[in-house]
Amino acid sequence: MKYLLMLYADEKAGAQIPPAEMNKFMDTMYAYEAALTKAGVFVSTAPLRPTTAAKTINIEHGELKVHDGPYAETKEQFGGYYIIDCPDMDAAVSWAAQCPAATWGKIEIRPYTEYSRE
Amino acid sequence: MSRDEASQTAERVARESYGRLVAYLAARTRDVAGAEDALAEAFATALRMWPAEGVPQNPDAWLLTVARRRQTDAARRRHTRTAGEAHLQLMADEIDDAAQNPDEIPDRRLALMFACAHPAIERGMRAPLILQTILGLTAQDIASAFLISPATMGQRLVRAKGRIKDAGIPFNIPDREALPERLDAVLEAIYAAYAKGWGEIDGAGAPLAEEAIWLGRLVVSLLPTEPEAKGMLALMLYAEARRAARRDPNGAYVPLDQQNTAHWDDWQIDMAETLLREANAAGPSGRYQIEAAIQSAHVARRRAGAPTWPAIAALYDHLYGLTQSPVVALNRAAAYAELEGPDAALALLDTLAADKRMADYQPYWAARGHLAARAGRKDDAHEALILAIGLSSDEAVRQYLYKQLEALRDG
């Protein structure tokens, strides 16, 4: 069963972190990825650039509309994700609880909808 | 007695009385959820009133009187409904019986614990079930330490109680023959609750450690001749005695060998030593007694500088022979590192490397990283420490390991 772990954090506060401290955070995130890989649950991950770099689009009456910024303005922004493959939600919660980002932000865990292909 | 202490005492008495009454009612009706429902409001009222107004002279009688009054109210309100009426009537009769003579209510808590830790109950639910039925803890109280949402924990508890009823799990203390194995399940559940609480200093789990110790005491008082019950209680007390020493003033993790022994709680250690002596005198040595003996040896080593590593290693040999547990193998290797050096210990760890469960077992990688660093095997140490950091869910432990990693990179 695949789960998407969506990492939310206050990106303004994140931008204030001194580089040395930031390196340490990145090290622990790398360590987390290594642990996921070793346990065979890792699928993929990516850090995202701040929401100032985001564009939101939709098509209204056949016309493309492009907005600067994220779809929803929230206090904490979606800043990166992990996709993991593990047996059930309990296991997914347990893995998410081990993610260092859970100590400075929030992690939303979303199970994949699984379609059977006949 | 300070106000906090007074309210803690009141809460303890309320839980004690509540657990005894739930056990008594459930043992008569086989209906754990019904017994809890019958007492829920009375118990909530007691938790609110007793800390402020003092504990009543006969707590059981107080709870039963309130429960009886509430139940009559509920029955009157539900007058027109027939569903559940028979069940309500049965529970009301039971409460009436008990209220006649509250002084003579037998303590069936041990029987209830055996029911909760019955082989027909899913292993992972045994500890939560005991915490709820015996101590009256809510799903909310329990859920976080078990990394489960309160709603899910609530559903699972309901299901487990249904199972006690449907599977006809008996409410009794197993006979001599079956006792060791069944008691082991009870002890395992209590120790699991303790382990959940031990890892955290003031996180959600910390109160669980205290509750588990209280349950351990209860089992010892109800089964005073069982050495393993004493061994487990001693083991928990040794660990609990060091709680304050496990963090420095900045909240950083401090391993056993660097702890300031002045911060250890002498009172709890003395109690553990007494229990361990009694346990060893009374019968054959089981898993918990050996683990407690190892803790005792650590205490002697750190406090008086006694050379107890050979004894510790020998106890781990014995324990490993008994359990074949990879967790024990790991601790055994750590003991041999002190006795014969890090390379010998790493050789012992290599025998574990093929075990799939080690892939995401944090203590394995932490030990491996620590030993490899001591042996000067830098690449191994680096890889293991990275994995150990990635597998830690405790920020203080993560920081501690990160310092080791930095030392390795600088050195």
Tell me what you see in this structure.
The complex is a heterodimer of chains A (118) and B (411). Chain A has 118 residues and is α+β, with helices and mostly antiparallel strands. Chain A contains three helices and six strands, in the order βααββββαβ. In chain A, the strands form two sheets. Chain A has a four-stranded antiparallel beta sheet with strand order 2-5-1-6. In chain A, strands 3-4 form a two-stranded antiparallel ribbon. The longest helix of chain A is centred in the first third of the chain and has 20 residues, at 19-38. Chain A is flat. Chain A starts with a strand and ends in a 7-residue tail after the last strand. The model of chain A has no long low-confidence stretch (mean pLDDT 92). With 411 residues, chain B is mainly alpha-helical. Among the domains of chain B are: 1-106, no CATH class; 108-223, no CATH class. In chain B, 72% of the residues lie in helices and 0% in strands. The longest helix of chain B is centred in the first third of the chain and has 27 residues, at 3-29. Chain B is elongated and about 75 Å long. The model of chain B has no long low-confidence stretch (mean pLDDT 88). Classes of the chains: A alpha+beta (118), B mainly alpha (411). At the A-B interface, helix 2 and helix 3 of A face helix 18 and helix 19 of B.
Question: Which secondary structure elements does this structure contain, and how are they paired or packed?
Answer:
The complex is a heterodimer of chains A (118) and B (411).
Chain A: E1 2-9, H1 11-15, H2 19-38, E2 42-47, E3 55-60, E4 63-68, E5 77-85, H3 89-97, E6 106-111
Antiparallel strand pairs in A: 1-5, 1-6, 2-5, 3-4
Chain B: H1 3-29, H2 32-53, H3 59-77, H4 85-100, H5 109-116, H6 123-135, H7 139-143, H8 150-166, H9 179-198, H10 206-222, H11 227-241, H12 266-282, H13 287-304, H14 309-323, H15 326-340, H16 342-350, H17 362-374, H18 378-391, H19 395-410
